[in-house]
Design a protein that fits this description.
The complex is a heterodimer of chains A (311) and B (154).
Chain A lengths: L16 H18 L12 E6 L5 H12 L3 E5 L13 H11 L2 E6 L4 H8 L4 E6 L5 H15 L6 E5 L6 H10 L6 E5 L8 H9 L4 E4 L2 H4 L5 E4 L10 H7 L7 H7 L5 E3 L20 H6 L1 H12 L4
Parallel strand pairs in A: 1-2, 1-3, 3-4, 5-6, 5-8, 6-7, 8-9
Chain B lengths: L8 E8 L3 H8 L8 E10 L3 E9 L5 H5 L9 E6 L2 E7 L5 E3 L21 E6 L4 E4 L5 E3 H7 L5
Antiparallel strand pairs in B: 1-3, 1-4, 2-3, 4-5, 6-7, 7-8, 8-9
Classes of the chains: A alpha/beta (311), B mainly beta (154).
């Protein structure tokens, strides 16, 4: 059985298939009761820190909603400027303070490795809500939960992961998460400049993920069951000239989907989007990204409940 | 070129030519510690063509310290000498974990932030070719980068 109590969540690779399925079961159990208020005593008296050193909408708000639906209080900040970090306080000292004030720390930071570092410092559990370009494990959890909910399984499907596979932590964690399951095939669809980093290829090969690379969405679209679209992460490009080269290099339109995709194809996106998915897709049966965003709450609630020993 | 035998201490032989000084740097030996030290560089070697040798009188280095040498001198052999006799011979082996020797090449790695009290840490992911991975940000570091960082020539 999974050991959840007090556990840190740094990388999706820290979790086995069985643990993820166990989490999905808890999330599914919570889905029905969160909004009714019947889960409000589960984390009563607990305080969850939300330490967002980088901007966030969905991740922060869904963690906050999840904590509150379970009866926990939240403290934290949404921009480093409003805290003593602006006065020069380092991450280590900030984490020690949060560790003293709360029962669990959710952290997002622009530097890769910040969450692991925080987990080493804090005695309380730390959840990585995104560290630079590297990991976004709870996004991967809710992504696969969404797939599981739509198809009843994560296995045996053909996936396309489109876009910024180099700097996008959601895409990277999604790919790493798929290594825990048995997809039929995973197509990595991106311009050459946005292909995964070498260490990610290494992990995918080591874990035996069946994958192929292509630059053409049209070519593989007819095969896909799930199309995972990501935004180009402008803020993480070391050289903005490279960003200009790939900007707008892919766009999913309703016309493209209607011409090439299976009718049952589902389009996911961790959001926010810029212009990579045409707004006309929103009203189509392909669109699953709003459901995906909504499912962030039960999945994060399940994670909080399990780590804090309430589920 | 003749270098006297040492009575007690450590002899590091078969260092690739030109890297003896880097070996000493990795071992943290500056010369100011007072040990008698012989550094022989670019001498003939049957095995390597040319090689360097380091002899340190009065200092016994342990395996953990010596394994760090493997980063730039994987061919090195080590003899521990007591009373002019070799009492232990060993080969260096790349350490599984490296702490505080290399720095991460990724400027946005948390270990590169000067205000954080954090030591860079790497784990060995491949011996041939030599490949280490930053524990914090996952960035890979190859042999050429390691040699360059440690001050040897790649």
């Amino acid at each position: 059985m999974a050991r959840w109590l007090g556990r840190d969540v740094v990388s999706i690779l820290d979790f086995t298939r069985d643990e993820l399925l166990d989490l999905f079961e808890a999330a599914s159990g919570l889905e029905g009761v969160l909004e009714s208020g019947r889960a409000r005593r589960l984390l009563e008296g607990k305080i969850v820190s939300l330490a967002f050193f980088e901007p966030s909408t969905r991740t922060r708000l869904s963690f906050e909603a999840a904590a509150k639906r379970l009866g926990a209080e939240t403290i934290g900040f949404t921009a480093a400027e409003a805290t003593s970090i602006a006065k020069g306080e380092n991450l280590a000292d900030t984490v020690r303070m949060l560790d003293g004030y709360s029962d669990l720390i959710v952290i997002r930071h622009r530097y890769e490795g910040a969450a692991l570092y925080a987990a080493e410092i804090a005695e309380k559990p730390v959840i990585n809500a995104g560290d630079g370009r590297q990991h976004h494990p709870t996004q991967a959890m809710l992504d696969l939960y969404t797939v599981n909910r739509l198809y009843g399984t994560v296995d045996g499907l053909v996936y396309g992961v489109l876009g910024d596979l180099r700097y996008g932590r959601a895409a990277t964690s999604f790919l790493l998460a798929l290594t825990r399951f048995k997809p039929k095939m995973v197509y990595l669809i991106s311009p050459p400049l946005l292909r995964p980093r070498e260490e990610v290829y290494m992990a995918l090969r080591q874990q035996g993920l069946p994958f192929q690379e292509t630059e053409s969405l049209e070519e593989v679209l007819p095969e896909l069951d799930v199309l995972y679209v990501t935004r180009i992460q402008r803020e993480r490009f070391p050289d903005l000239r490279d960003y200009e080269k790939v900007r707008g290099s892919y766009r999913v339109t309703l016309d493209l989907l209607q011409r090439h995709a299976k009718p049952e194809l589902k389009v996911l996106h961790p959001l926010p989007r810029v212009d990579e998915i045409d707004y006309r897709v929103d009203g189509s049966p392909y669109q699953a990204y709003f459901l995906q965003a909504r499912l962030g709450v039960p999945v994060r609630a399940a994670l909080l409940a399990k780590i804090l020993g309430a589920w | 070129m003749l270098v006297r035998r040492i009575r007690d201490g450590t002899v590091i032989d078969h260092i690739p030519a030109g890297r003896a000084l880097t070996v000493l740097r990795i071992l943290g030996i500056t010369g100011s510690e007072g040990y008698k030290l012989a550094i022989v560089m670019n001498v003939e070697s049957k095995k390597l063509g040319k090689k360097d040798i380091v002899k340190i009188e009065g200092l016994y280095l342990d395996k953990e310290q010596l394994d760090k040498i493997a980063l730039i001198a994987p061919t090195a052999t080590v003899n521990i000498v007591k009373d002019y006799r070799v009492v232990e011979k060993m080969k260096v082996r790349l350490p599984e974990d490296l702490s505080n020797i290399l720095s991460c090449a990724n400027p946005t790695c948390i270990t590169r932030q000067p205000r954080e009290p954090i030591k860079p840490r790497f784990k060995l992911v491949s011996r041939r070719p030599v490949l280490y991975q930053c524990v914090y940000c996952g960035t890979l570091i190859e042999e050429d980068d390691i040699v360059r960082q440690l001050g040897g020539s790649a």
